[in-house]
Amino acid sequence: MQLRVLGELQVRAGDRPLDLGPTKQRLVLAALAVDAGRAVPVEALIDRVWDTAPPTEARGVLHTYLTRIRRVLAGAGSGDGPAVTVTRRSGGYLLEATPDQVDLLRLGKLRDEAATLPPRDPRRAQMLRDAVELWTGEPLDGLPGSWASRVREGLRQELLGVLLDWADSDLEQGRSGHVADRLRRALERDPLAEPLALRLIRALHLNGRRAEALDQFTRTRMLLADELGVDPGPELQALHREILRGQLPVPAGPPRAEPVPVEASPAGGEALPPPTAPGCQLPADLPDHVGCESEMSLALTVLGEPQKSTKALPPMIVSGPGGVGKTSFTLRLAHLLRAAYPDGQIFVSLDGQGDDPGHALNRVLRALGVADLHGLPTLADKLSQYRSALSRRRLLIVVDGATSAEQVRPLTPGAPGVALIVSSRSRLTTIPGACHLELPLLRREESIILLGRIVGAEKVRAEREAVDGLVDMCEGLPLALRIVGARLAARPHRRVARLTERIRDERGRLDEMEADGLAVRASIAIGYEALDPAAARAFRLLGFLGGPDFAEWVVAALTGEGVDRAEELLEQLIDARLVVVMENPAGRYVRYRMHDLVRLYACERAVEEETTAALHAAVGRALAAATQLSGRHGEPSPYALAPLYRQAPDAMDAQWRPASTDPDPVRPDWIDVEAPFLIAAVERAAALGLDVAACALADALVVALFATGSDFTGWGRTHSAALEAARAAGNRVAEAVVECGIALLRYREDRFAEALVHYPAAVALFDAAGHVHGAAAARNGFGTVLRELGRHREAVPLLTAAADTLDRLGDENGAAHARYGLGYCHRELGDDEPAVDWLTQANDRYRRLGHWRGEALTTRGIGLVHRARGDLDEAERWCARAHRLAVEHGDEYTACYTVQALAKIWLRSDRAELAGGPLASSLAICRQRRDRFGVALISRTIGELQLAVGDLDAALETLTGAHAAWRELGHDLGQARTLRDIGAVQARRGDQGATHRAWELASATFAALGTREQAEVEQWHRHWGCGCAAGLGAPDGLAATRG
């Protein structure tokens, strides 16, 4: 087993590299490996892996990574020697290994042993040569973070010191040719390193290549002047003078056999002919290329003026998912750069080729006119010939369809004036010094422009609506747009709408996206077929589940794995460009998504390769996990529900839950971020006939997401789908629960008449199924709607029965809400003592439960009883306490109702000036929340305020609008109370006829509903100075109301 850090971090079992897992896990291994043989404290490990921003669960995640690293090392084996192990030491962890197993340990051992030998000892030269061979690339290549960067630089300097010692030793032994080739490669990585340049120049001269030595000095001097503004150091200048004056001795005779002069045959045969100018070998330009303007501008800036550059140009890596237009972009860029590279433009396509690093190099050498590659038997020989061919030329090399960095790394130019452009699905992040361009999908307007260039702008304008639909389904993927464009262009008579209609059917969409050898399906298949079996299965299951963006826990649940393993699988899917990471400016959550066409392909593969039972089980696991995680959110609803996922967990058969060792995916705003996925998941499960899973998650979302928000659309979508699934399966309990959820939705939407249909239906279903708890909860909700409408006499029996049953079943929250409803009803009926008793009981229970919103509602309710009694000081004390609860918890919506209660008290205590601003703000919030009840209630209160300050015209207008709002809600009590206030305005205006008509209608409603206002009619005319009320025949009463 070999553990390597002097290049890309690797663990190799024989010739086979092992999978080291996600980046953070690799960082943990690197952090231990660079200190192999020494214990690394836990805190130091955390700092090395996460820099200054470790997650709160860093120790737990670190433990998980260490466990998996141990598993990797154990699986690598140890041959005949001791195993490489990670063991716990006091306060930290220790990686135990021998120098033969870790390249960094071997480097140190060779360096130390060489230092003990005389300079001319051949053994010293061999030890240093072996040490240099351990340097395979950038140390810890590709690992991010400040710690890795610092260690990388330290190792680079250490390796440089070993390289210089080796060069001195080998030059003493007369091996100047090999030294020159190795130092040239090192100097390409670090062109300003004078010690390297000094030894390279000496090696070239000693190898008989005096002209190259002098040219290298000139280039080094120019670089130092341009980059640092300094001259070469005294030692380098002295060497230059010695070479010019012939004072540096050159070995007699021809160079040793081991070096290969640039233009000489390595086999010792005839000299290779000088390379020819390749001319332009680019495929035809694509003038209809659209989009990626900023990326094109950057590429032209970097590569557009090679004649001005004194150092090698950075390789340009163009990456992106299949079909995004990498080849199109690369060719367009290459044609725009042709004039800047007059010595030729070479194009090499690697699609379908393996990872052989010599393959692309062979193609380029042939393009440069090197016909006899047999004369270059080794990769080193070819590289030497390649670099010689590039010298003093301005060449453009385009490599299309690379799959790995190994394919193109040999082509990285070391000479100024040579540009390398590579397109790849992979990001090729290990190419040193590269400039990376990640191509985005096209924006909507760019997609329309591209389609117009293919089919004609006139056709696009003529059928813009159909074109918009077509563009939406292509989702910005240029390949898909080119295919549908080609199909339309091939049949100019065909209407765009016809093709749009055919593609709209998801079942045949990928079949429709084929034309003239182009196929979206084939493009996606390239990435899919390269996946390992576990990642391929995760891909299929994600496609089958569908939905919008998702998080790691979804993959964990679908596959039945842990979240850490899910992260590994996602990294594979990201590398294959089948899944993308969404932009996440806040950095709180990582979200992933599939392009819609990729999702369809994944779903196809799922149906073809998985059994129906396996697919349904995977979706069931995902829905069970979603239900469990959603259950951690929200508060106990102040509206009585019968949650299926809590009532019947066995029926859910939840096969996956977040393990205690997994990072917890749940944070306070988790439910809001996940909402689109969760809603779509309910619909998908329902469509598959998974009735229990769909209904359980739909029900969990009522408390977690819907009940305290205003996403009525999502609420309706989940419950419509779940209800249909429950009915199709004959699952009466699930149907009843979903009926309760729909009834609550209608209540929250102020669609009271519909709520009065759904709650009785739920009661009947629960009763028929013998589900006592559900029936009590449904009666609680039924009574809630009736009391909200002012039908308190009908509500009291329902709420009383619910309270008794819920008490018996131990449902504290449901019983508390039933008591709140009973207190509400008795207050409105004028039964103040029972009202206070019920409300106090509810208040106490809510406080015990920690349900602050319920506590605020009941506290406000007690205040309203005191206000109805005329005890305004006590009323204000209770209502102010309720308002503080809402404000302290940041609930501006509940605060609207506490403000309204306080405003009524201020009006009655001659402090109207306090009410205007708070009421206006509360009205705006209710409108924003689409709370029609709140809008009507607060509008009426504002009308009362305007009446109190004498603005009668405004009061009449406001109250008339409030009355219309109550009428639209079908709320008789609200209408009656507003008519009473309108009558008061008319009394002030002197219109006794209008007053009488308003009060007569109001009085009749109060009498019918039995509310306390029926006893207050006589007081109205005395308070407002109108004699018409005397004829209404009502008994004396107190001028105080609920509203």
From TrEMBL:
Domain of life: Bacteria
Similarity section: Belongs to the AfsR/DnrI/RedD regulatory family.
GO biological process, one term: phosphorelay signal transduction system
Name recorded for this polypeptide: DNA-binding transcriptional activator of the SARP family
DNA-binding region location: 1-97
Keywords, in A-Z order: DNA-binding, Transcription, Transcription regulation
Organism of derivation: Micromonospora auratinigra
Pfam families assigned to the protein according to its UniProt record, in alphabetical order: BTAD (PF03704), TPR_12 (PF13424), Trans_reg_C (PF00486)
Domain named OmpR/PhoB-type: residues: 1-97
Region called Disordered, residue ranges: 249-270
InterPro entries (alphabetical): AAA+_ATPase, AfsR-DnrI-RedD_regulator, BTAD, OmpR/PhoB-type_DNA-bd, P-loop_NTPase, Sig_transdc_resp-reg_C-effctor, TPR-like_helical_dom_sf, TPR_rpt
GO molecular function, one term: ADP binding
Residue spans crossing the bilayer: none
